[in-house]
Input
Amino acid sequence: MLRIPCPWCGERDEVEFRYQGDAGRTRPAAGAAANQVEDYLYLRDNPRGWHLEWWLHTAGCRQLIKVLRHTVTHEIAAVGGPADSLSPPEPG
Output
């Protein structure tokens, strides 16, 4: 089980959160071509390594948070609000 450090509530179990998707993707602009919207909705990468994700703290503060998580080890390197810029740790 993941332990996610909520910026507002502190560290909590994963069951208090709901995964909301890839935070590294940009939604197509209004009026975008149908194939761009289709790609955004249905095509997904399966990254190996650090990945930005949206999580909603449903059983706590109900805030949307951005989580930088390693997809292999499930290590969480950083957590922040939607406007925060998160970077993976330096290797080594």
